[in-house]
Amino acid sequence: MTKALSGRQAQAARNDEVILAAARAVFVADPGAPIAAVAERAGVGISALYRRYASKEELLRKLCSDGLDRYIAESEKALSDDRDPWVAFKAYLRALVDADTNSLTQRLAGTFTPTPELFEAAGRASELDRAVFARTKEYFRPGIVVEDFAVILEQITSIKLGDETRTRQLRHRYLTLMLEAMHRAGEEPGGELPGPPPSMAELTDRWRA
């Protein structure tokens, strides 16, 4: 049984959630924003923020770590889904779109120095990507590779129109179109995808500070 937090511990945990939510909103909008902007959005003093996170880089690493943890959890859930592989894959991509972890990839890549733990988590995420792809590969049109998914998700999560409800609606609208385009049944006779797929080097080079 999980031990209940004391009043002070519970308040600290709530404050941390508020700080992280504020940091995500601030840095996804502008990775160059000062850490003071996070404190202002969170409604906490800058000294309180620094007691929890000693630097902007530490805060960015925490955001990235949380995003990777969520991505890994959704990937493991997809692999344990015993439904038809294509049905499970569609549910997996929808969950990733709602988790919005790729917004962090787009905006924070190259803005801080990753730790060995982050590289290890990224490696685990990559392994799971390949396992999900292998399980679903027979459903894809020729030419699609596992690295395509990262860019597709970035394209979908770059959509930000209206309020949160409208943004989610539009993201799922275009995800549905993407899924139809990826499925083998949607392939046009003799059609080839333009340009080569993204390489792993292209995807990882963005994380160089």
UniProtKB/TrEMBL annotation:
This is TetR/AcrR family transcriptional regulator. PROSITE patterns: HTH_TETR_2. SUPFAM superfamilies: Homeodomain-like, Tetracyclin repressor-like, C-terminal domain. One of its GO terms (molecular function) is DNA-binding transcription factor activity. It comes from Kribbella antibiotica. Keywords: DNA-binding, Transcription, Transcription regulation. Residues 34-53 bind DNA. The lineage of its organism: Bacteria, Bacillati, Actinomycetota, Actinomycetes, Propionibacteriales. Residues 186-209 are annotated as: Disordered. Residues 13-71 form the HTH tetR-type domain.
